[in-house]
Amino acid sequence: MSVPDLSVSCRFADYFAICGLDFDSGLEPDRLCGDNLHVSPLDRSYKGKILAHYPENVPSNQFDEHATCMLCLPAGLQFRTQKHSLEPQFHSFVVTRENASRYYGFSLIFYEEVRNKNICSAMHTLQAMYITELSSGQTPPGHRKSSGKESSRSLPRSFKLTPHTGAALTYFDIAKDKLYVAKSIALICQYPFVRVAQMFLENLFRSLPRQPGPGLSPESYVYNLLYEVPVPLPGQALRLYVPPPQPHLEAIPVVIRMPNPPEELPLLDYSLRVMFSNLGVELVVQLFTCVLLEHQVLLRSTDYNKLMLVSECMVSLLLPFTWAHVYVPILPAPLYHFLDAPVPFVMGLHTDSAAVCANGPRSIALCSEAALCLVDIDKPDIQLPEELPIFPHRTSFIEELNHLMDKYQIQRPETEPTKLSAPLNGTSYRHMNDNMSSSCTLPSGGLRRKHSFHDVLEWEESRPLNASPPASPTRRAPLRPDALQRIADIVKRTGVNIDDVDAETVMPTTKKKILNDEEQYNEDMRFNSAVRETFLNRFVHIFLMYENFVIMPDQDRESWLSSRESMVNFDKASFLSDQPQRHRPFLSRFLETQMFATLIDNKIMANWGEYDVNLQVFEYRTRIVRTNSLKRIKNAKWQVKDCPPELLLGDFSRRLSTEVTPAAIAQNNRTFVEKLLKECKSKTKRMLLEKMGTEESNLSFGSEVSITGVEESTMIASLCDLLERLWSHGLQHKMGKSALWMHLINYQELEQCSNSTKPIDPNYLTPDLSSVGAEVEAQQAASVSPRSRDSSRGGSRDSSRDRLSNSGTLERKSTQPVNPLRPLPESLTFDMRNVQAMTDIKTEIGYARAWVRLSLEKKLLSKHLRELLADTTLLRSQYKRTAFLRCEEEREQFLYHLLTLNAVDYYCFTNTYPTTKLPYRVLIMPSRKASQTTANCWISISGMNGESTPKIPIPRNTNEFVFHHKNLGTLSTLRIGHDNSGLSPRWLLDQVYVRNEVTGHTYTYPCNRWLGSGVDDGSTERLLVAARVRSEHTPRSPAPPAALHPHTPTTHLSTSTIQHMIGDCVNAIVKWHYQSKRDKDANSLSVLLCGENGLVKCLEQAFLCGFKSARFFGKNFFIWDYFARVKDEFKMSLCDEPSTMNNKNCGGVSYNCRQDQEHRAIWRCYCHLMDEVNSVGRSLGKDGKFQLFICLSLREHWLHRMLVPMSLTRVTAEMYEEQSFLRKRGLLTFLKQILEPLDEFDIVLENSLTQGI
Predict the structure, then answer these.
(1) Which residue in 267, 826, 914, 1083 has its CB near the most CB atoms, within 10 A?
(2) Rounded CA gap, 788 and 862, in Å?
(3) For range 1034-1063, the mean pLDDT
């Protein structure tokens, strides 16, 4: 063939190649596939070569002979006989260049007869050598099992006797069998037009060998495709011709079209229908999640084309992201060592090749790796990595995809459940089958009678509420059952028998129409577009406002490219703060992936004119969503009538010439202001109702699905968006992404200048503020600004806010404990400095939202904004007269709406930034009796974020200090102790105060116990539970009572009071477990167990009731001593033989055999828990050990089971009175039954409570 100029335009195909056996080289084993001498010569892989390729070279795409041959024949050169299947097999492949660009190949593997006698003789010789080695037993046993039964040694005889067995297929008889060898014809293209390539290769193969006659030769079609068919431009189509299936027929015209982004999605010619019908919706979503998080993904199938199809479809669904790691959809046998790569990859492994290749067992062993996702396409089956987070809105996402499957009538796999199941936590997909094996909207395979109209009515009446309606090719909504019944009644009154009416004439049938290849391809492309838009729409809504968190560089392109690896380009902490809590596990991991970093890099590169196609497609759709465009409704029956031009343009010029009056402008602006105020009112009201209605939603006894409200983080993010829109309305000049933050920065600059004694330097201020400097300087001499009054520590508060949030404070102030810590400043700039010190926030939007969250949590948002807007000079310099912030009446209403949020408690700052390093102030208040100690003291604090500080040394000669640590969240417990060193180590501790210096949350830890050996219970370490100290901005509650020594003279509680206390504690714990995940952080389980009125304290009162310590054993006897004596008696009972216990009385009660077995098991558990508690160390006192024992027994569900065996011991009779809980049958039954409901829950304790046990 002559070679034309290929550099003019991009051709459809760059190369046409032929791969196969080179008769000059002979049979050459493929050494890269490993040692395969243990298998039959017909099953071995031999080395193939490129026999020819046209043209010789294309400048834009250099021909890679090695890669092309390896991927055209991925299993190597294979031989077969007439006993095998000789059907041609098509598959596509992709090659990734060093610069990350890709080109595609399409290969048709067929088998042609070997007529070369040398090759046949060589194969016969290898067959004889293999049989000789196998018969003599020289082949290792591990390799011998693949050749048949191990007991058979007469292999040639068995081959002849059973010609259809697997062993006979691997035997080649040169006298009787015909030998065939694999051969491939392939196309190398720049774009994956799969359908055209497959039709071309298959029809080209059918037309070979060419017989003399009319029609074009095969060479003509190849020449035309290589040199005369260009790739169409974006948005254009091209018709080309492929060979006919029979040589005497005419050429087949085929149309290809190149999509036109950003309106259209990039090219995808692979069928998503095939992938979904093979894998199912839920498996696709799980695989999609693994690919998004850049796990190692290994696909397995017996069909090379399925490997390529699933890989390409899955990567195409990542739009707008791109897979930037190892991508080998078809892994050839010589490249199996790639599976050891410690990087993310997507690879496809042929199932049969893994058994043949020597590295096959090693590759299969990778299935147990924690980061590997293994997918068997043929079963289908999936093994997921460990701790895989759930994709956001996974349930609704699967429902949407199922709806598309029903709409396009796509058959589901047999293992696909028709009902939506719960999210998978296991690793296997096959064990998820529902009772129904196929969709109710799909026709069954059996014969059916004529579908009458009665069938439709009966189906509608029997259909469950959550079942989907029958799929219909039209877009009209399905009729309700009552509407169908009314239609049937009307038809009956007309005298028509509806039994004779075919339902297919009334409503569309669900039976799928048989489509030809062209129609099926068009339907697949429609389904592709629908599914890809569905996936892309998920990303559009998740990352709708991502631009606000992109950190744009302030340098040129070359400088940024040289240092971008060390730069932070996205404010991840601020972005995650706006996301719902249940989505953060997935999003936090996804933001760390390379594909997300690539998208952000492409966004930054767009500033210099380098636009990425995927980014353009994504931003085109985000703009559509932001503009809230109307949905386009298609109606083929509705047409627009032609209208005369004079009617369209007659009044248009007069409208343009009419000037808009100032009154109209004012009216329009007034409308905008009223809409903003109405939106503010509705948002604050919704936030209040959602927060105050949490108690009712917790009683629904459901998971997150039962919550009808929006998550707190989402509502606060919406409030931040509203504030940004308010501050952006009527701006004179836009200076940054966040108008609110820029206003705050300008205010801070003026505040710093006004507080200094130096005159204001205009060069120091922001350009817009230089004109304001003179006015501020003049105001300082005249009067004190409201800012200086409000920013002073302990300044006056807004009276209206006091009336709302501090109702009744003055009357109750005398009953509240005095907070010994100095109050934090309530100034706006103080909170700004704290936000600016956060190192994990990088953008203006992030700083503004963090400041709003902090102010809202401190109940100072309305006060801060009032202070900010009180500077009218600054306000006039930045905003127009028509701006919302300069409308005094609406602005006051806006601030009062924000003031209503002070009625509820928000932890939106504490729970949103878990990685921020915060300062904590500790104040230790010892008793005056023993306020000093010579020991080395330490403290450790735990919070609800799962973080605990290490042992922090307490400085000597000071009781107040500050330490910095990663955000602990809401504080829960505190451990304080010392090493009992020195001459006077004993220390009487009253209580401890801990305050978050940013949020101002203060916690008190009552103690009133001794720390030291030989005093109190001998403990040198105490576990204290936090109690929140209410600030002046929150409704006050009575102070928590101080912890008392067990033997401090107190009024003895009655048994009914103790019963009531225990019942309340158990109810609170049960209710806590039924709360939704988002509300469990508000009330820690540690407080419910070990707090002042917790379950441990109540059970301590129950064990103290009727205790004889004061009468017989003195004042220093503790409940733990009773537990220790019970343990000794249990150990003695365990030493007795079970046979001797059958008739033995213990405590006056006889045992039978069954009770003895149960009690012995409880004795062992009791003794084991006691040993574990005693092994903690000497630092824990007797009361601390009792608390630890109760918590562990509740966690292990043994506490209520231990009560009866404890009550039967002699120690109980000696140390308790008759009216105690352990000796009175009614009280013991109550105690056992009230604790039994806790057996239903998995009680998870903090590490600070369990001491590592």
Answers:
(1) 826
(2) 17
(3) 61
* Whole-number Å distance between alpha carbons of 1035 and 902: 10
265 pLDDT tier (thresholds 50, 70, 90): very high
Cβ neighbours, 10 Å, residue 627: 8
- pLDDT at 1185 (0 to 100): 84
| Maximum separation of any 2 CA atoms in the chain, in Å | 122
Which band of pLDDT confidence, cut at 50, 70 and 90, is reported for residue 332?
A: confident
72 contact partners, CB below 8 Å, separation of at least 6:
17, 19, 93, 105, 107, 109, 184, 186
Q: Which residues have CB under 8 Å from 882's CB, separation 6+?
A: 665, 666, 669, 730
pLDDT at 920: 94
Residue 1183, pLDDT > 50, answer yes
Region label for 957, one of left (φ > 0), alpha (ψ between -120 and 50) or beta (otherwise): left
Strand 296-301 and strand 345-350: the pairing is parallel
User: Predicted confidence band at 810 (pLDDT cuts at 50, 70, 90)?
Assistant: very low
User: Rounded to an integer, what distance in angstroms lies between the CA atom of residue 115 and that of residue 1207?
Assistant: 94
> Which range is most confident: 330-344, 414-428, 530-544?
530-544
Torsion of CA 686, 692, 698, 699, to 10 degrees: -110
Query: Could you tell me which of 437, 441, 394, 398 has the C-alpha nearest to residue 416?
Result: 437
In terms of Cα–Cα distance, which of 945, 855, 932 is closest to 899?
A: 855
CA 439 → CA 272, 405, 412, 415, 470, distances in Å? Answer: 19, 10, 8, 11, 10
Structural domains of the chain, ranges and CATH numbers in brackets: 15-192 (no CATH), 272-432 (3.40.50.11500), 453-508 (no CATH), 545-626 (no CATH), 685-696+709-807+820-903 (1.20.58.900), 920-1045 (2.60.60.20), 1070-1250 (1.20.58)
Write the CA distances from 744 to 766, 768, 1107, integer angstroms. 12, 13, 64
Token pair, residue 922, equals 């500790």
Radius of gyration of the chain (CA): 40
The overall average pLDDT reported for the chain is 75
Given this model, what pLDDT does residue 919 score? 93
Strands annotated E in 331-466: 345-350, 372-376, 381-383
Instruction: Report how far apart, in Å, the C-alpha atoms of 493 and of each of 269, 460, 501, 502, 631 are.
Output: 53, 22, 15, 18, 40
pLDDT at 424 over 50: no
Go through 1170-1191 and write b for each residue having 16 or more CB atoms within 10 A of its CB, e for each that does not. Answer: beebeebeebbbbbbbbbbbbb
Q: What are the distances in angstroms from CA 336 to CA 142, 350, 361, 493? A: 20, 11, 11, 74
Residue 296 dihedral angles phi and psi, to the nearest 5°: -75, 120
Q: Which residues make Cβ contacts (< 8 Å) with residue 255, sequence separation at least 6?
A: 237, 238, 239
Beta bridge partners of 939: 952, 976
Cβ atoms of 191 and 106 closer than 8 Å: no
| Spatial separation of the C-alpha atoms in residues 258 and 1029, rounded to whole Å | 67
Q: Is the pLDDT of residue 1105 over 80?
A: yes
* Contact present, 148 and 38 (Cβ < 8 Å): no
Give the Cα separation of 1063 and 1102 in Å (integer). Answer: 12
Distance from C-alpha of 442 to C-alpha of 308, rounded to nearest angstrom: 28
Paired residues of 973 in beta bridges: 942, 1025
Where is 1011: in which H helix or E strand? Answer: strand 1002-1011
List C-alpha distances in Å: 421 to 424, 662, 822.
8, 61, 55
pTM for the predicted model, two decimal places? 0.69
CA dihedral (162, 167, 170, 174) positive or negative: negative
Overall size of the chain counted in residues: 1253
How far, in Å, CA of 624 to CA of 632, rounded? 12
